[in-house]
Design a protein that fits this description.
alpha/beta, five-stranded parallel β-sheet, 4 helices, 12 strands, 19% helix
Length: 217
């Protein structure tokens, strides 16, 4: 996409086309960049709120680029997104992508009897589609989603393997910020797509109220 926001917060190709209209995906990527910058201590809470408001209402790519003009390319916000990442692992520890990791365009999994977890809860999304080429035998492939992240398993061939897909509760008007396409073959084990697990506090808030003591009934 022309004017795509890079993980550094700088917009690709904006030097010659700052007047181009910004899309929903452009705004969403800038929101991710600003949040990472705040997490690195580069923005105060008030500055973050102000810039998020501008980002969500920006009409052009130039307006988005101005939001990070004073930010250095450091920390997670300065990590470069790769087009292709390949993971090869056999009979060893779990493979995990959690926290603020940068999502590439394509991920190749060549894994045998190793658990694999791709957690998108706090991931830095720089592209609108992630293709995951699965060549995995045994164990469980887990994808943890968040609102705006959808997973398509239609292109995945399953051999003695089951899929458990529990979508993240999402408002109907929430835009899709990342589409994860699983292709290839998963043999034995499971594929699990689920939202983040509730914290103990969230679990308590959703517990049904305890019945009143017998003397008050």
């Amino acid at each position: 996409m022309s004017g795509e926001i890079a993980p550094t917060g700088k917009a690709v190709g904006l030097g010659s086309s700052p007047g181009l209209r910004a899309s929903h995906a452009d705004r969403d990527r800038m929101v991710d960049v600003l949040r990472v910058a705040a997490g690195d201590g580069l923005l105060t809470a008030d500055e973050l709120d102000e810039r998020l408001e501008v980002a969500l209402s920006a009409r052009t790519l130039g307006e988005l680029a101005a939001l990070t003009a004073d930010l250095p390319s450091v920390g997670a916000a300065g990590a470069e997104a790769k087009d292709t990442v390949r993971i090869e692992q056999v009979h060893s520890g779990a493979v995990e992508r959690v926290g603020r990791w940068v999502v590439p365009r394509r991920l190749e999994l060549a894994v045998t009897f190793c658990e694999v977890t791709l957690d998108f809860t706090d991931a830095l999304i720089t592209h609108d589609t992630l293709r995951v080429d699965v060549g995995m035998t045994g164990k469980t492939l887990t994808l943890v989603t968040r609102p705006g992240v959808v997973v398509d398993t239609d292109g995945l061939r399953l051999v003695f393997c089951k899929v458990k897909h529990r979508p993240t509760p999402t408002h109907p008007n929430t835009p899709v910020t990342l589409r994860v396409e699983l292709v290839g073959e998963k043999t034995h084990g499971r594929v699990v797509v689920r939202p983040p697990r509730r914290t103990f506090g969230q679990w308590l808030l959703r517990r049904p109220a305890a019945p009143p003591p017998a003397e008050y009934r």
